[in-house]
Write a structure and sequence with these properties.
alpha+beta; Tumour Suppressor Smad4; 6-stranded parallel sheet; 8 helices; 2 domains; 6-stranded antiparallel sheet
């Protein structure tokens, strides 16, 4: 039997209503829905006013498999995410190891990772069921944290970004930046961000970094409010490794945040290393919309007066 993962923003009524639509579409085609046990508990705990009538009955029926996250990824051929980019990042934590492709339906705000809109939901589900889509590979970051004696204390990954920042808003942290095993600069700052090309439109963009087209095999190092003459964003390639060291004279603690979700405490003398991962994530695309058009749409950029090349199809 075919199975699709459903992952939703459980705190948003519109996502739960959309979930009902997807469940009905899957059921009409004989496809079982799979949700994680964590999501099941979140939905059951949602405020009564957000729950569509009959949703809990469906989730408790034989039409839906409720399993742990590892089992869910091994069971399904594809995932449908109902929410914004934050919900997609959560869902990626479930499916990344199994390399299950995800398709995001945007119920959030900007939504660069999500492609479809809620108004097209039925058509979207039918196309996914029919296999009428393309798979887009997106690079991720591998992150390693070492203590002051160079012992590995944490390994992780990030789809968008890994941000080392000060823990105390009233203080700053002092760091040394290393690229490919060589020191490049040191300064006091609010933090330093490592971002994938996908994440360049997220925190990296807000922090003054460049937007990088998703297919570019590169990642960014972006200083955050650095007290230095040379503290510009750097663009690094597949063969490069960046490291951020908390200098031993730091009196205050830092915090490493991965995709805005997972947190690691960083203290004086510790080191964060980042590079592009050999493992990508897989996003399901229904259209071949140019990334430039997505930028214009999502950021509502002004393009009045554009003439374009004569005779070009637009």
């Amino acid at each position: 039997m075919r199975r699709f993962l459903l992952y939703v923003h459980s705190g948003r009524a519109s996502a739960l209503t959309a979930m009902m639509t997807v469940l009905a579409e899957l059921g009409s085609r004989g496809v079982r829905a799979v949700i994680t046990d964590e999501q099941y508990e979140e939905i059951r705990g949602a405020e009564a006013g957000r729950l569509p009538a009959g949703l809990l009955d469906i989730l408790d029926s034989e039409e839906v498999d409720v399993v742990d996250a590892v089992s869910a990824a091994d069971l399904v051929e594809l995932g449908i995410v109902l929410g914004g980019d934050g919900t997609i990042l959560r869902a990626l934590e479930v499916v990344r190891e199994a390399e299950v492709p995800l398709h995001g339906v945007n119920l959030g705000h900007v939504g660069f990772l999500a492609e479809s809109e809620a108004e097209e939901l039925s058509t979207t589900v039918h196309r996914l069921l029919d296999g009428d889509y393309d798979i887009e590979q997106r690079a991720t970051l591998d992150i390693v944290v070492l203590d002051d004696e160079d012992r590995v204390v944490h390994t992780d990954w990030a789809m968008n970004d890994a941000s080392l920042e000060k823990a105390d808003r009233q203080k700053m942290i002092y760091v040394v930046i290393e690229i490919d095993g060589r020191p490049v600069s040191s300064f006091g700052c609010d933090g330093v961000l490592l971002a994938s090309s996908t994440g360049s439109t997220a925190y990296g963009f807000s922090a003054g970094g460049p937007i990088v087209w998703p297919e570019v095999d590169a990642f960014l190092l972006v200083p955050l409010a650095a007290h230095a003459l040379f503290a510009r964003p750097l663009v690094l390639g597949r063969s490069s490794e960046a490291a951020i060291e908390m200098t031993v004279d730091n009196r205050d603690q830092g915090v490493l945040t991965l995709d805005g979700r997972r947190v690691v405490d960083i203290t004086a003398g510790m080191r964060v290393e980042g590079r592009l991962s050999p493992r990508s994530i897989r996003l399901v695309r229904l259209t071949s919309t140019p990334f430039a058009d997505r930028l214009v749409e999502k950021f509502q950029l002004p393009v009045v007066g554009w003439r374009g090349r004569v005779g070009r199809d637009v």
